[in-house]
TrEMBL record:
Domain Low molecular weight protein antigen 6 PH, residue spans: 82-152
Lineage: Bacteria, Bacillati, Actinomycetota, Actinomycetes, Pseudonocardiales
Organism: Saccharopolyspora oryzae
Classification via InterPro entries: CFP-6_PH (IPR019692)
Protein name stated in the entry: PH domain-containing protein
Region (Disordered): 1-31
TM regions (residue ranges): 65-81
One Pfam entry name: bPH_6
Keywords in alphabetical order: Membrane, Transmembrane, Transmembrane helix
Biased composition (Low complexity): 1-10
Length: 157
């Protein structure tokens, strides 16, 4: 049998490498997600489970009206699951346990910040809307999703 020599791919010499101008290469901006949702951590359902277990002796001691005690953990669980803030590049949707609200980013005049609480959006109408589960630490993500309508606190010096 005769062996055929393996061909190696041609490699360009150093002086033959085509140079591309650095100005034509622009860093790609990462694509924004369609929306970003801020919610209460699902781990808090464990606290609801603990309340449920602790309420059981009380509920059965005062049977049948004592069973109404179970409405407390049920309501807490509903609040945890339902409460959220969803932001997209166009609008903000706020949902609480009993109501909801939507507004465009153009309606936001400012934000009220509090280190220990959720942020509040101040609208052009003067109305303040609490943004559930959105904290001060989430401001950079909010700024990106707003398309620059809100300043990014990390970029300011």
């Amino acid at each position: 049998m005769s062996e055929t020599p393996q061909q190696q791919p041609e490699q360009p010499e150093d002086d033959q490498v085509a140079e591309t101008p650095a100005s034509s290469e622009q860093p790609k901006q990462p694509e924004l997600p369609k929306s970003l949702t801020f919610r209460i951590t699902p781990v808090s359902q464990l606290a609801v489970l603990a309340i449920l277990v602790c309420a059981t002796p009380l509920a059965w001691a005062a049977y049948p009206w004592g069973l109404l005690v179970y409405l407390i953990p049920l309501g807490l669980s509903w609040w945890i699951v339902r409460t959220r803030t969803t932001v997209s590049p166009e609008r903000v949707a706020v949902r609480t346990a009993l109501s909801g609200d939507r507004f465009d980013w153009d309606e936001v005049v400012s934000l009220h910040l509090d280190e220990k609480r959720w942020l509040k959006a101040v609208l052009t109408s003067g109305k303040e809307i609490t943004l559930p589960a959105v904290r001060v630490r989430d401001l950079p993500r909010l700024s990106v999703m707003s398309g620059g309508r809100l300043p990014n606190p990390e970029s300011q010096e």
